[in-house]
Amino acid sequence: MILSSPIYKLKRRAKLLARDNDIRLHEALNQIATKEGFKDWSHLASNYSKSTPAMEIMRQVSSGDMVLIGARPGHGKTLLGLELTALAEKINRTGYVFTLDYNETDVWDRFEKLGFNPRDSSRSVVVDTSDNICAAHIIERLAGAPDDALVVVDYLQLLDQRRSNPPLDEQVRALKKFATEHGAIVVMISQIDRTFELSSGGLPTIDDIRLPNSVDLSLFDKMCFLNDGEIQIEMAA
């Protein structure tokens, strides 16, 4: 059974329901669960107890989507991206990791922390740590791929660090065009501006994305923000 919304959104909906109707939270949770087709919240939770943020993202992405994952350092955005590539085979895709931030040993060490062993997978994950990574390099690598791809790029702000590379906005447009035409899913990990840490807390938003060079963020179909163990997945404006 597919939920109408991710678990975290259902919980938020229950909190609002409890507040607005002056009922206990467990009663509101049970009402939400019943609407989702379960006996009660415990029944729902038992069916989705192993759900992770990556699984929730997987349920919401479609062919041709561009997804942005944003967080400050140390809040799990890279591990989330790697978990998405490890799960790619579950939606009949091959996972690709293009990183300008880590070497190949670092990447596989992080896969190991996730409990992912490529030898146990019917589709191997492709890891590319070339210094030449840019949109053109990614598209060239994927052009001859026999399978639909789920691509994670680590990370957005490094794509135009070389002066010989096109402007960042041009590269994002090229990747979006490729995703649309080939049915790929492209996930781009993004830095969040350090001024966010001076804010009152909560989760980053689209306004907190660090953009040293202009990018049309409407090219992204979905955005995912992380902070202190919390996560929010939203449609781009």
Explain this structure.
Its EC number is 3.6.4.12. One of its GO terms (cellular component) is cytosol. InterPro entries: DNA_helicase_DnaB-like_C, P-loop_NTPase. By secondary structure, the protein is an alpha/beta fold. The protein has 2 domains: 7-48, no CATH class; 53-235, Rossmann fold. It has helices at residues 7-21, 25-35, 41-48, 53-60, 77-87, 104-113, 135-143, 168-182, and strands at residues 66-71, 94-99, 126-128, 149-154, 185-191, 222-227, 230-235. The chain has a 7-stranded mixed sheet, with helices on both faces. Strand 6 and strand 7 form a beta hairpin. Helix 7 runs parallel beside helix 8 (168-182). The longest helix is centred in the first third of the chain and has 15 residues, at 7-21. The chain is globular and about 60 Å long.
Key terms for this structure?
alpha/beta; Rossmann fold; single chain; nucleotide-binding; globular; DNA_helicase_DnaB-like_C; seven-stranded mixed sheet; 8 helices
Structural class by secondary-structure content: alpha/beta
* Shape estimate: globular
Following the backbone from N to C, one meets helices and strands in this order, namely HHHHEHEHEHEHEEE
Cα-atom Rg, whole angstroms? 19 Å
- Round the mean pLDDT to the nearest integer and report it: 89
- The level-1 CATH class of the largest domain: Alpha Beta
Major sheet attributes:
7 strands, mixed
GO molecular function: ATP binding; DNA helicase activity; hydrolase activity
Keywords: ATP-binding, Helicase, Hydrolase, Nucleotide-binding
GO cellular component, one term: cytosol
Organism: Pacificibacter marinus
